[in-house]
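Reviewers asked in the last cycle whether our approach scales beyond single polypeptides. To address this, we selected a multi-component target totalling 963 residues and predicted its structure end to end. The input consisted of the following lines:
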Amino acid sequence: MYEIRFHGRGGQGAVTASKMLAMAAFKENKWVTTFPFYGTERRGAPVTAFTRIDNVKIELRSQIYEPDAVILLDKSLLKLVNVTEGLKPNGLVLINGKKGDFESNNGFKVAYVDATSIALKNHLGDPSHPIVNTAILGAFSKVSGIVSVDSMKSAVRDISPSKINENVNAIEEAYEEVEVA
Amino acid sequence: MPTSIPKQELMMSGHAACAGCGAVLAMRYVLKALGEKTVVSVPASCWAVIPGNYPAEVLKVPMVYTPFAATGASISGIREGLDIEGKEDYNVVGFAGDGGTADIGLQALSAAMERGHNVFYIMYDNEAYMNTGIQRSGSTPFGAWTTTTPIGKDRTFKKEKKKVVADIMMAQGVPYVATASVAFPEDLIRKVKNAKEIKGPKFIQILSPCPPGWYHNSEDTIKVSRLAVETRVFPLYEYNQGQFSLYKTSKFVPVEEYLKIQGRFAHLKEDEIKEIQNFVNERWEFLLKKEGN
Amino acid sequence: MKAQNITREIMTGNEAVATGVKLARVKFISAYPITPQTAIVEKLAEMVANNKINAKFIEVESEHSAMASTMTSEITGIRSFTASSSHGILYMHEMLHWVAGSRLPVLMAVVNRAIGPPWNIWADQTDSITQRDTGWMQVYCESNQEAMDSILLGYKVAENKNVMLPIMSMQDAFTLSHTSEPVIIRDESDAYDYIGDLNLPFSIDLKNPLGYGSLMPPDGPFMELKKDMRDSMYRALDVVKEETKKFNDKFNADFPGLIENFMMEDADYALITMGSMSSTGKYTVRKLREKGMKVGLIRILFYRPFPAEEILKSIRGLKGLGVLDRSITFGQRGAVYEDVVTSLYNKTDIPIKNYIIGLGGRDIRVKDYERMYEGLMEGGDSMEWINVGGK
Amino acid sequence: MVMTPTAYYPTTNIKTSSWRTSKPVIDYSKCTRCMICWKFCPDVAIDINENPDYEAPADRIKKMEAPFIDYDHCKGCGICANECPFDAIEMVREGENK
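The resulting structure, written as C-alpha cells, was:
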C-alpha cells in the first residue's frame, strides 16, 4: 500500500488532485481510496487530503499517519505544517517551489517543481489564485513512479471540468521540469 | 331549491364536533364547493377529533392525519404523488386550525405556498387552541380571554393584536388568498370555486366561531359570524392574482354588538372596547386603501 | 441468466447513494440540505435536471417537512426517498414515528454526524442510534458499495408485505460520504427487475376513502398495532436473509446480510463493530493474526431489527468480547452494548466489555483497535473510552 | 399482511342524538322551504325530502322539496331555529311534547 498526503490551501485544488491521482491509479487496475480532511474549508485556509493506492482492496480507513509521500501545493505552508511528520524513512517530499525552499537532513527524497509558473503559463486559475494541482501531479508521476504520466493525463481528461488541454500541457511540462535535490 | 349551495354532502352526520361548531360548517362548505375528487389532510386540531374514534370517518373523501406542524408539507407530498400518477384533477386540501397555521405550521405553510404546489390551504380560524381547551394562539384577537391569558390582577386578557395569516399570504405573493365566513356560505363557496380555477397555491381563512371557546350560545354561531363581518372585525376580502376586492358592509355596526354576545370579551371596559373599535377602523381604512378606494 | 457487464467506477458514498436511488426507481424525492449529506441532494437534483432519473424532486424548507412530504407522497402509492443527517434527523424525529406507525416503506439515507453542542460536522452515530425506537429498520454500511446496494435491498425488505416498515441506511460522515473508492454500478435492468414497482395496498383511492391515522382510544387496537409493528420488525430478520440471498444471486454480489463474521472461525477474542469503523478493525485483525493472535470481528449491519440469534451463534467459544459504540448515551452504557448484552443474557458467561470510540469524528486508528483487543485479553467487563484526553 | 391504522366506517352509523337537551321542531305551516336551516346545520342533520308533497300545506300552490330533521344526529344546537326567518322552527326541551 502506498499512502500520499496532500497539503494545500482552499481553492488550489488539493482535494481534486487527490481524486485525480486516485483515478489515475484506478485506471491501472489498482484499488484506491481518497478523502479530504474536512475542516471549515474556506478559500486560502490550509487543506489536507489523503490518497491510498494498493494492489488489493484497502481496508484501512483511518487518516494517514505514516505516508510514503507528502505533496505540498503551496510552499508557504512550510511555515504552518510539519511537512515530514510521520513520513516513512526514504519517503518522498514534493514541493511546489524552487531548489533550496526546503532542506531535509533525514534522508527524505525531496523534489521541486515550479507548479505555480506552469499553471500561470497555461492560464489555470487566475494570477492571484493559480490552480496548480495538475502540474504537481505531472511532477509526482515522474518522481514517484507510482502512476504513469499517461494514466495521469487520462484521469485529468475524465475529471477536469474545463481547460482539458491546458491541464494536460501542465502535466507534461511539470513531468519534464521536476528536479530532485 | 331556492339556494345555490350544492346539495351533495361529502361530510357526513354523526361526527363528534360540539353543538353549533363553526369548523364543521367550514369543512362542509369547502367540500360542497370542491366535489368528491378531493383529498384532505388535517393536522392535530379539533378536526383531528371531529371525525370520531377509529375506525369512524366523517368524510366521503380520503383523509390524511398528520402531526401538528406538517400540514403544508403533507399536502405538498400528496399533490406531487398524485400528479406523478396522473391524477392532476384531484383537489388536495390542507385543513388546519389557527394554531396549526399561524403558529406551529406557519413555516411549512409558507414554504408550500412558495414552492407553488397546486393545493388549497384552508385555515379554519376559531382564534385559539380550542382542541386543547382554549389557549391563546397568534390568531387570538386583542382583548380575548383564554386559559393562558386569564383575567388576573397583573395581567389580564390578550394584549397583542391578531396575526392575520391571510395578510401574510398576500404579502408573500400567493396567487389566491381570501377570507370567508360561515355566515356567508354562498360567498365562501364562490371563493373556493374561484380558487379552483387557479393551478397553484390557494389560501382561504375562514372565521369559524367556537361556542365553548368564545362563550356564546350554540344557536348564535351564525349570528356571531355575521356580526364579525358587519362590525368589520373580520373583513371579507378576495385577492385573486393581484386583484384585491373587499366586501363592503352596508351600514356601520359598532364592535360592541359583536363583543357583547361573547363571554370571552365580557371583562372589557369601555376604553378597551374603544381601543378595539380604533383597531378595527384603522384596519378597515388600510384595506380600503389597498383596494384603491 | 444474462452475462453481467461489470461497471466499476470511483465514487463517494454520497454519489453511491444517489446512484442507488436511481437504480431503485424512486419517483419522489424531498430533501433539505445538511452537511455532510448535501452532495446526495445535489447529485439527485442534477440527475433530475438532466432527466437521468424519472423522479420529482421538491426542495423543502426543513427536515420535518422533508419527512412529512415523503410520507404523504408514499401514501399516494409512489416510491419515495429522503436523506438527512445529524440535527436534521432530530428535527424530523416526530415524523419518523408517524411514517413507521403508518406502515409506509419509505427509505432514508442517513449520513451519520455528531449532535451538538458544540457544533461538529464529523462522524458519530448518535443521530441515528437515538432513533432506534421509532419503528424504522436500520442498516449501517461499511463501504460505498454497501451504501449503494443497501438502497435497493432496503426498499425490497421494507416493501415486503410481511414487513411494511420504513428503513434508514447509514453511512459515516466523510469516512464514507466524502471518500472516493471503487464501486460496482449494478446493472440498471437487473435492478429494475429486482426491485419492481411499489404496490401499496392502502394507497389513496377515492373509491375507498380511508382515514389515515385517526384518533384511537385506549380500547381501540392501539396496542395491537404497536405489537404488530414489533412482530413485523422481527419478521424482517428472515426477510433480510431471504432478500440478501436473492440480491447476491441476482447481482453476483456479496452483501453480508444481518451481520458479517470476519475471521471468527477459531477466534478467542472478538470485537463487535458497526459502520465504516469495521474496515480499520479488519485491517488490525489481519495484522494481529500475523502475530499469531486469535482475534476476530463481528460487524452488525442491521441494528434494527437486532440480529440477536446471529450474534449468539458467532460468539460461541470466545474468551472475551468487546462492543464498540460510536454514539453516546448518558447514565447507562453504550446503546449497542446494551442490545448485545440483553440478547446474550443467560445464554453465555463470556465477559463483555464496552468501548466508546470515535465520537465527533475522532479518528479510529489501528492502535486504538490494538488497545481494544489488548483490553479483551486483560479480561473483565468494564467500559472504556478509547483515544480520549490525548491518550 | 400487516395491521395498518387506516379505516373507513361512516359516522352516519353513529347516533349523536343523546347529546341533545332540546330539539328543533318544524312548523310546516310556516315553512317556506327556503332551506336556510339546511344550509346552516353543522350536524348535517337537516335533510331534504325530495317529495314535493311532503308536509305540504293543502293551499300551497308551488310545491317544493322540504327540510326535515334527522333526530338521530341532531345535537340540538338551535342554529336552525335562530336563523329561520319565518319563525317556523321552535326548540322544544327533550321529553316535552310538542
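The mean pLDDT of chain B is 96. We regard this as preliminary and will revisit it once experimental data from Aim 1 are available.
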